Amino acid sequence: MTSNIGYTPAEKGILIVLSGPSGVGKGTVCKALRSKAPELVYSVSATTRPPREGEVDGVNYFFKSREQFLQLVDQDQMLEWAEYVGNFYGTPRKFVEETLQSGKDIILEIEVQGALKVKQKFPEGVFIFLLPPSLPELESRIVGRGTESEESIRNRMSVALEEIRLMEHYDYAIVNDQVDLACERILGILTAEHCRKDRMVSKIKHWMAEVNH
Amino acid sequence: MTSNIGYTPAEKGILIVLSGPSGVGKGTVCKALRSKAPELVYSVSATTRPPREGEVDGVNYFFKSREQFLQLVDQDQMLEWAEYVGNFYGTPRKFVEETLQSGKDIILEIEVQGALKVKQKFPEGVFIFLLPPSLPELESRIVGRGTESEESIRNRMSVALEEIRLMEHYDYAIVNDQVDLACERILGILTAEHCRKDRMVSKIKHWMAEVNH
Question: What is the spatial distance between Cα B161 and Cα A15, in angstroms, rounded to a whole number?
């Protein structure tokens, strides 16, 4: 009768997938989370693009040859992958699963289509959709980058609208009105997911069994 | 295209039901929550017991005659009720519903059987079960009151075990290892519930409709 039902090392971690339309600020929120929640692990992508100066294998990316990358795909070792400007990018399953097994939570920041692919392979993940405070605000964030033509902005807005319709497939949606608030909401969701009854019941079964013998 | 999808006054509040075995510290946690989260409304019970000195109708309790109380029961205006030492105690539906309609969250602290009755009438509530850090710890909290015989303690522990089995019917379970942590978990759950996709979709429908016309 001495066991404790706080968080135990035996508990598996939670995969949080943070997604949302381009321009919504996924990267900024994730960066802020890194300093607010250093105990969270951040998923490392694999890529076939050559390392840039200062990039470290296993930290910034897992650097792979095309052959290695495609072999991992064949072995169902990529939770999702895509080709972008001639290079492959993907999310290695092994790093995610090993982190979860070690009892740590891991966060994966990814665009909307990629997130839905991850959901097919990893439905037990917690899928969070990041929303802009309003559509005009999203537009001004895209315009604010100053790098795009009017047509390109219109095009990106229409893609963003299509993507927002896909939030239906997510568990949660949070508004990125202030980065700090968005982080708090993500950490609140993480806390809540750890407290879900089913998670706790599986702990208490062990605890009750000890008590009943 | 000017609407905002942060929390709006149009959004209904959430009913949080906090329950758990006697001795687990529900009252202490609720008291701490009151100072940490003054924006939360606390459910006010109805009772037929006469007001004590300083107690204010509508603040400490809604004071009712037996006739008034039973009439409310007949009109299905009590989410749950029970008789205790010759007096009736219950949770008036009207106060809860009016608070939720005003967009505020309301918390109801209640014993396990009462919570399950509330769930029958109010399944959209969020039901949180408070657990002791361990059974020996619960026992020492009951013993610590110093007012009970050994038989009474054994009896209360066996009731507590029965009640812990009922956590199956709850949405979340949290451990009351430290009052501050328990409060944080409750507030995390509340944040998460506000960010549930279905809640947000119903907001964004309005938002998307504005965009599409």
Answer: 33
